[in-house]
Amino acid sequence: MTRNIMIVGVGGQGSLLASRILGRAALDSGYDVKVSEVHGMSQRGGSVVTYVRYGDNIGSPVICRGEADVILSFEELEAARWLDCLRDGGVIITSTQQINPMPVVAGAAVYPDSLTDKLRAKNIKVIAEDALAIAEKGGSAKASNVALIGLAAHTLGFDAAVLRNAVAACVPPKALDINLSVFDEAARTSKDRF
Description:
By secondary structure, the protein is of the alpha/beta class. It contains 8 helices and 6 strands; from the N terminus they run βαβββαβααβαααα. A hairpin with a 7-residue loop joins strand 2 and strand 3 (47-55). The chain is globular.
């Protein structure tokens, strides 16, 4: 068994911490795990992609087109951008947050309307929720990455308690209580709705 998870977003959203949390959860579950980061213009708001692969024997950290079981997306446009990497029967878990890319900021393009609806129209299972709002409700907008992991808690193949423990192991102590609160709220939301 091999599971392939892509984490996609925009620089500064915390995708690298999210990949460390998932990697830790995989290790704690007894899997071989490989994590790889691909930075675009991350410091300028560009795309950031992280691959997390786990299973019995993982040779390469890279996920190719059509191989992702799950795409965790911090932003709607990034979910659409990486759609061709999703395998048939895969799941997209996306925050409904929208961050305008530079062409939109410059007025050369328009942010596409109804992206989540367009993804669902392709017969793709999409879990879409405002991870930023969940994080803010829990006390910190910076915890939206942990909120997204909580929303995915019942889809990634890990026990929610294992993911929660991985959050505790990877988040700095000064932010731990808020991040655990955000994770718990998001996991409850996921369980209740999906």
